[in-house]
Write a structure and sequence with these properties.
By secondary structure, the protein is α+β, with helices and mostly antiparallel strands. The chain contains seven helices and six strands. The protein has two domains: 87 residues, Arc Repressor Mutant, subunit A, CATH 1.10.10; 76 residues, Alpha-Beta Plaits. It is elongated and about 65 Å long. The N and C termini lie far apart (49 Å).
């Protein structure tokens, strides 16, 4: 089974969902551009094989339309798998610094230790600086990415996100993020 093709198929199907939730033409254009590039890279014969396997593994389902055509849709299990693939590739784009600090604070109960450890590791992997045990700071816009992480781990009620205009150890943070 070709895992790369399977990932691409799931991401392409997920992109259809992302397109539907895109509110601006710019966001829709970005989704189309990304999907188009990925689609061109897929071998058609292998695509058919992988679609069959995805259907058998219950990651996708097919719906027959009144006109006889078939629509392939992600199942709940397929959406979760697509989110996982996206999550592994997630990056925060570093733009020009707007001189504001993004802060993520969480207090996750011990019974959810795995989620707490996972969010901590993901924030570190994205380049956040751990100010305190459950307090992370970052200089660039990242609210969408943080919301995605929070939803991914189902930790919304335990995690706070804020934007600070200044912080007393700003010089230290600027050195860490090479903003001086």
């Amino acid at each position: 089974m070709n895992l790369i093709i399977k990932q691409k198929i799931l991401l392409l199907l997920y992109a259809g969902l992302a397109f539907g939730y895109s509110y601006t033409p710019g966001m829709q254009w970005r989704v189309i551009k990304e999907v188009s590039a990925k689609w061109k890279q897929i071998n058609r014969d292998k695509l058919r094989e992988e679609i069959k396997r995805l259907y058998q593994s219950k990651l996708i389902d097919k719906k027959e339309n009144p006109d006889g055509s078939i629509t392939i849709v992600l199942t709940k299990k397929g959406k979760l798998r697509a989110l996982t693939y996206n999550f592994q590739k997630m990056k925060v784009e570093e733009r020009d610094w707007d001189e504001k600090w993004r802060i993520v604070i969480f207090d996750i109960p011990e019974k959810m230790k795995r989620g707490r450890d996972a969010i901590r590791e993901k924030l570190k992997a994205l380049g956040f600086y751990e100010l305190q045990k459950s307090v992370f700071v970052y200089p660039y816009e990242c609210q969408n990415e943080i919301e995605f992480i929070i939803e991914f781990f189902d930790l919304k009620k335990y995690v706070r996100f804020g934007v600070l205009e200044n912080i007393d150890n700003e010089v230290h943070l600027k050195k860490i993020f090479k903003l001086l």
